[in-house]
């Protein structure tokens, strides 16, 4: 028996491969077989087609996978016993910035991805519920594209408002994968949205409360140390 674990990047694939070897050396069952997909959505499709068995997802993607494909969460990672598997959605700006929740209109925004819990559903839902964002005819994408002065919303490239919602996206180092809802877009996911802010592309980033410390204070060995 084996578990086919679906990954969405080269880094995830390598981590999965290392875990598979460690399981084998320790005699842990079931064994792990790593299957590399192109995105979370692609992996969900592979699981639905019974070509993979498991994937690591955030809360929003778990909800979508359950609602649209009947998938279920089976385990959650806990790094801090006081926090558990829950987290807070926060809006982050640079130190000294004059941007507040009341002055977001016209600002450049960085999001983890379209329909993601922290980077889209929570902030957009809050803006609508608080009356700050007016949605006409249930066209949320148009409302958001008009509200912000340009954004990076990975996954919005195939919408009618990609010019605005993908304006800040950069793709990978070769310019490929611009606005993809995958690691090909450098501003995708929590670290990507924070990078969008840190590199000056955006004025505000919508991330989870632990994102800043996970990417600063010596905890991250990648791009922040080079800036």
From TrEMBL:
Compartments (UniProt record): Cell membrane
Residue ranges annotated for the Transferrin-like domain, each copy included: 3-227
Location (main, coarse): membrane
UniProt cross-references to PROSITE patterns, sorted A to Z: TRANSFERRIN_LIKE_1 (PS00205), TRANSFERRIN_LIKE_2 (PS00206), TRANSFERRIN_LIKE_4 (PS51408)
InterPro entries linked to this entry: Transferrin-like_dom, Transferrin_Fe_BS
Any one GO molecular-function label of the UniProt entry: metal ion binding
Membrane topology: Lipid-anchor; GPI-anchor
Keyword field: Cell membrane, Disulfide bond, Glycoprotein, GPI-anchor, Ion transport, Iron, Iron transport, Lipoprotein, Membrane, Metal-binding, Repeat, Signal, Transport, Zinc
Biological processes, Gene Ontology terms: iron ion transport
SMART domains found in the cross-reference section: TR_FER
Function recorded in the entry: Involved in iron cellular uptake. Seems to be internalized and then recycled back to the cell membrane. Binds a single atom of iron per subunit. Could also bind zinc.
Protein's UniProt name: Melanotransferrin
């Amino acid at each position: 028996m084996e578990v086919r674990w679906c990954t969405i990047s080269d880094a995830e694939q390598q981590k999965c491969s290392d875990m598979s070897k460690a399981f084998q050396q320790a005699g842990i069952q079931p064994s792990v077989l790593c299957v590399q997909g192109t995105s979370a959505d692609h992996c969900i499709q592979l699981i639905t087609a019974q070509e993979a068995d498991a994937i690591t997802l955030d809360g929003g993607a778990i909800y979508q996978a359950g609602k649209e494909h009947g998938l279920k969460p089976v385990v959650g990672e806990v790094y801090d016993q006081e926090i558990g598997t829950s987290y807070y959605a926060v809006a982050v700006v640079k130190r000294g910035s004059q941007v507040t929740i009341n002055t977001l209109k016209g600002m450049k925004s960085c999001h983890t991805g379209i329909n993601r819990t922290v980077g889209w559903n929570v902030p957009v839902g809050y803006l609508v519920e608080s009356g700050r964002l007016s949605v006409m005819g249930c066209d949320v994408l148009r409302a958001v594209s008009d509200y912000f002065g340009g954004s990076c919303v990975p996954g919005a490239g195939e919408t009618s408002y990609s010019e605005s919602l993908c304006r800040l996206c950069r793709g990978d180092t070769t310019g490929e994968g611009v606005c993809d809802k995958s690691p090909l877009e450098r501003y995708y996911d929590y670290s990507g949205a924070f990078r969008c802010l840190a590199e000056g592309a955006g004025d505000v980033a919508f991330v989870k409360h632990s994102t800043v410390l996970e990417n600063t204070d010596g905890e991250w060995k990648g791009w922040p140390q080079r800036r």
